[in-house]
Task: inverse folding
């Protein structure tokens, strides 16, 4: 992102990983967080897991 725009890269972000219902998702999530050094939200459109949390975090960010 920084290669495209430093200003954009400096903005607050929410990182989410989909497909959390699949086998091995927890291990993938842990590796993803370790690789980027940030908390990653785990979501699933199939089960609905994490979607309420994602919506609330987005609303909080937009309300600032």
Result:
């Amino acid at each position: 992102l920084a290669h495209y725009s430093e200003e954009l890269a400096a903005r607050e972000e929410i990182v989410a990983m989909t497909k959390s219902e699949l086998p091995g998702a927890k291990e993938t999530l842990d590796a993803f967080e370790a690789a980027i050094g940030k908390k990653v939200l785990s979501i699933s459109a199939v089960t609905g897991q994490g979607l309420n949390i994602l919506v609330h975090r987005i609303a909080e960010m937009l309300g600032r």
Observations:
- Strands lie at 16-17, 41-42.
